[in-house]
Each structure stands twice: as C-alpha cells, then as structure tokens.
Amino acid sequence: MAVATTQSLEELCINSIRFLAIDAVEKAKSGHPGLPMGAAPMAFVLWDQFMRFNPKNPYWFNRDRFVLSAGHGCMLQYALMYLTGYDSVTIDEIKNFRQWGSKTPGHPENFETPGVEVTTGPLGQGIANAVGLAIAEAHLAAKFNKPDLTLVDHYTYVIVGDGCNMEGISGEACSLAGHLGLGKLIALYDDNHISIDGSTDIAFTEDVSKRFEAYGWHVLHVENGNTDLAAIAKAIAEAKSVTDKPTMIKVTTTIGYGSPNKQNTAGVHGAALGGDEVKLTRENLGWNYEPFVVPDDALSHMRQAIERGASAEAEWNEIWAQYKTKYAEDATLFERMISGKLPDGWDKVLPTYKPEDKALASRKHSEICLNKIAEVLPELIGGSADLTHSNLTELECSGSFQKGGYENRNLHFGVREHGMGAICNGIALHSSGLIPYGATFLIFTDYMRNAIRLSALSHAGVIWVMTHDSVALGEDGPTHQPVETIASLRAIPQLTVIRPADGTETSGAYKVAIENAKRNRPTLLALSRQNLPNLAGSSIAGVEKGAYTVVDCDGTPELILIGTGSEVNLCVQTAEKLTAEGRKVRVVSMPSWELFEAQDAAYKESVLPKAVKKRLSVEAGISMGWCKYVGSEGDSVSIDRFGASAPGGTCMEKFGFTVDNVLSKAKALLG
C-alpha cells in the first residue's frame, strides 16, 4: 500500500505522471522523458478539470478529443490514461512501454490503443489532425443540432511542441483553422525551447504567438507552466469562452522538470535519465516511491474521471433519447453514419457506360461519381488544394464550408497539400462516419506523402482524388508529370491505389473507395486529364477484383497485354490488330495491384495463367514493379525517365505510347 507524502494532492498527481514516464523510459532504455516531465502540470489540469471523456467507453461519441501532436512524449498520454482508468493502459502495459505487442508503443497509435484518437509521431501531423477533428465536430453540430437539443458539442484539445511549430504542415493547417474560425479547437503549446540539437535558439527564434495571431487565433500565454496551475486553468477557461476562433495557449515549461542535472537540456529530450539521475530526481521532487508505484491518494483522485465520464455519457444519452423521439429522421441518419454502415443500394447511383458513349477524362467521370454519391451519402465531405476546377471535385448539392456555413460539404484547403492530407485523416478518424476526400494533382502527393502514409497506417478511411496522372497532362512539363509516383504509392502498405481506364472503371473505383472508407481503409484514385474512350469489356465488378479480362481469345492466349488507366485502350487496339493477323491475345485491365493481390490463387490464375509467359505491360510510368506480372520472358512499355513539356498527345507519342509501338513490342515478344 502506497502512502501519501506531505505533497499536495495536485503535486502527487503531477509527479505520478512524471515518474510513470521516467520509470517506463528507464525500464525500456528508450524514449522521451523530458516532455512528460515538463508538460505534466498542463496535462493534469486539462484532464482533471476540463476534458469530458469516459475511460470505460473510449468511443463515446460526444467525448472531447485529445491529440498529443508531440507524439514522442507519448508516456504523458499513457500515464494519464492509466491514472484515469482506461482499460487499454494497465500498469503492466506501462511497464511494457515500447516492447513487442504492447498497448504502449513508442508513439501514440490509434489502432493499437483504444483511447488514442489519432496516430502521431511525425511532428506537426497531430495538430493538423486536430484541425480535421474540429472541422468534423463543427460540421456535425451544424447539421444535427437543434435549437432545443444539442447533440454534438465537444472540444478538440491538442498539445504541440516546438518541433510541431517548426514543421511546415502545422502552419498550413493552423492557417486554415484560423480562417475557418474553429472555436472548439484549443492548442496548448509546450514552450520549452529545447529540441534534439539543443536550444531552439540555434534555428527557431520567431515569435510563435504573433504568428498564430496572424493566422486568426486567440493567443494566451502562461508564463509559469511548471507550477502555476491556476494560470493554466484560467487560460483554458478563457479559451473555451472564445467561440469564434481557435485558441493557442503558449505554456512556458522546463523540459525534464525536476532533474537536477538534465532539466532544460537536450539530454533529457530523447533518452532515459539513467539510474543515478533518476535517483537524484526522486530526491529533488520528494518522490519516495518505488518504480511504477502511484500514491493511493493520487490514483483515487485521478480515477474520479470514471464516475465523471459515466455521468457525462449518461447525460448525453438522455439527450440522444429525446432527439430520437423528436427528430427521428435525423436521428436515423446520425445513427447510420456513426455505425459505419452504408444505405442499401447506395451504389446504384454509379453510372456505367457503353463504347458509343462520349469519351471523357476519368477526372470528369470522377466528378460525376462524386455528385451522384453526394446525393445519397450526406457523409461525403471534401475538396481540393486550390485545384477544384482542375480536379473537378465540387459538390453541386452543397455550398462552401466557411464561417457561418459549417453545414456545407465543400472544403477549400488552399494551396496546402500536406495540411489537407492530415486534416482529411482527422476528419476520417473522428468516429463520426464522415467520408472525407482530398484532391490535387497526382504529382503533388509528394508534398503530402507522409499524410497519405499515415492514412494507411492509422486506418483512416480517406479518398484521395488525384488527377493529371501521366505525361499526357502535357505542356506543364516534367515538374508536373508523375512518372514514378504511382509506383511509389503502390509501395505503401494498406493503401489501395486505383487507376481506372474509363467511365465504368471510375465508377468501380468509387464503389471500392466508399466501401473501403467505411472499413477504415484509404483509397487513392489516379485520374486522367485527357479523354478516354469507354471500353466494351470494362466493368465495376472487374475493378473490385483489381484485374480482369476485357478482351479474350478462343483457347489459351499466346500473349497477354496488361494495361492500366488510359493505356488499356492502347492494349485493346493492339489486340485487334494482332487478332486480325491470327494471333491469340488477351487484354487484361489491371486498375489496382492491391485489389488483385487480395484475390485467391484460382482467380489470379484465371486472369494471368502461369503457362502464358509472353506478357507485355503498358503503363505511362516507370517499369519498376511490373516484373512481378510480366515475368522474365515479358516486357514493359514504360517511361524510365522524366517527362517533357509538349502537348499531351505529343508526349505520349514521343514516349512510345502508341498502338504502333505497343504492336512492335508485342510482335517482338511473339517472335
């Protein structure tokens, strides 16, 4: 039985947070103790006095969301979760910090630890996720709240560090948040002036407060974040009173607070204190407890969060019961959305096309799909990084999401691709059933790659709408022509990449993308700028399989042509010429490697029989990866260099994407 010392109850709680972090990092011999030691007071005040959450039901809908953007300091969050009674973080999990299979990994992971909202680690992602969470709350509140019943009403709190504020993504996201006036977004800035290289003065001397004021944020400063708990509480209360803009509270702290020799140094940022320094820190802070022992008084006080949380959820459940009675139609929609279900037959709105239908760019077919889907799925919300009329992503049934118009579904991200990516992840991870989409040119996925990777890692059901998918975009030249991009995106685990060949395949891509979103998986669509003819053999069901036969021959084929996107039609035309010459040719459209790899062996064999060794892939990108499907006896029509500035048709011709060149390569294989 642990016995309380003469420390105040608040000090006991704060030091419990600190020493759980210290002891876990020490046992693991790995981690970042400095931030938890310095930020413990602000985190304690926030979780103890302000945040509404239910530790026994981490997924209660109307909980406040907490994001630790400075994810390297994750022991701060794990300590708080253990102390307040989350079942996912036991004392054994604290002791197992950073070990195989633990619920306390080296950075917060929402898919590992119930109660963690988003996956943070790469600095700046978390604050941008928080902007997405706040957008989701604002949209749902505007959509569902009634004058007499407030169904959606919660805050998004985020702790950011100096590193987050240095990363460009935070500027992108926070600039947009200020423009939108997201009053329920509150950021606590752990202003400790230390990063890995030492004092931030060597590289970071700007006035962060003035920067956030310029973004349109309400800015406060707690000068003594180490001990002035009243000032921290006062600042958070004031932040909550400001409803027309987000708030940034600069809380000046001492990293590694309490460590006699390492506080306020880079040495405490990312390494264990060491046994001698741990002993000195215990003495300095009057902590007379063994490792991982929490005083009963502190644990009892922190565990009051369980009762508070149950009470808050019960109050909300009463509101929800009244809401279902008075506003049954809206309640039914709300319930369906948060359950992750799709309405029966929603996909019937997706159009299919015949060869005689007008050739359109797949970006245009995408626009048609988005607007058809938006009519039956009100949870669809998204927009473009200042390329709405090039990406063709505007929802005609809705206005723009702006101050005073949060009920609208067209998001305008500005030229902020990376911020857009992480904001979309936040919307998807809000647990509201919203399906966000974010759009730009395919080449600019390079600007937002980390966010796309994190959407796959953290199971965020985002739809990435990427247009201008090859050198066929033309005159903008190699800076805008994505020759290697598709291959690099296919390398991301758990990301479904789809490059549709025509209108029907674009519909199939959206069917997959919407269903993926409800299964918490991201999908990236690579869409053309140029018009594409509609193919006789294309199908929605074929897209769902990842690859399928669009043109076949009698008996076993001598040659298989494999195409994606705009190049499938080249394969079809080539097959017609070879067939006329008496050759047996199969054309396979392969819009998605990932979907094809998910099929069973029998299906794969039916599409690409092992006995057929002569195979030719045709894709306007690099050849890397295609060897898996064409084998040692096959070949590829590809571009293994950068593009060029010229009309799109000229680029395709010069790089060999013509029927004549594909035919020549095919005949060479056939001998």
Automatic annotation (TrEMBL):
Thiamine diphosphate binds at residues 72, 121-123, 163, 192, 269, 444. It comes from Leptolyngbya sp. NK1-12. It catalyses: D-sedoheptulose 7-phosphate + D-glyceraldehyde 3-phosphate = aldehydo-D-ribose 5-phosphate + D-xylulose 5-phosphate. It holds the Pfam family Transketolase_N. GO terms for molecular function: metal ion binding; transketolase activity. Residues 360-534 form the Transketolase-like pyrimidine-binding domain. Its cofactor is Mg(2+); Ca(2+); Mn(2+); Co(2+). Keywords: Calcium, Magnesium, Metal-binding, Thiamine pyrophosphate, Transferase. InterPro entries: THDP-binding, Transketo_C/PFOR_II, Transketolase-like_C_2, Transketolase-like_Pyr-bd, Transketolase_bac-like, Transketolase_BS, Transketolase_CS, Transketolase_fam. Catalyzes the transfer of a two-carbon ketol group from a ketose donor to an aldose acceptor, via a covalent intermediate with the cofactor thiamine pyrophosphate. It comes from the Bacteria. The record marks 32, 269 as: Important for catalytic activity. Binds 1 Mg(2+) ion per subunit. Can also utilize other divalent metal cations, such as Ca(2+), Mn(2+) and Co(2+). Binds 1 thiamine pyrophosphate per subunit. During the reaction, the substrate forms a covalent intermediate with the cofactor. PROSITE patterns: TRANSKETOLASE_1, TRANSKETOLASE_2. Substrate binds at residues 32, 269, 363, 390, 468, 476, 480, 529. This is Transketolase. Gene3D superfamilies: 3.40.50.920, 3.40.50.970. Its EC number is 2.2.1.1.
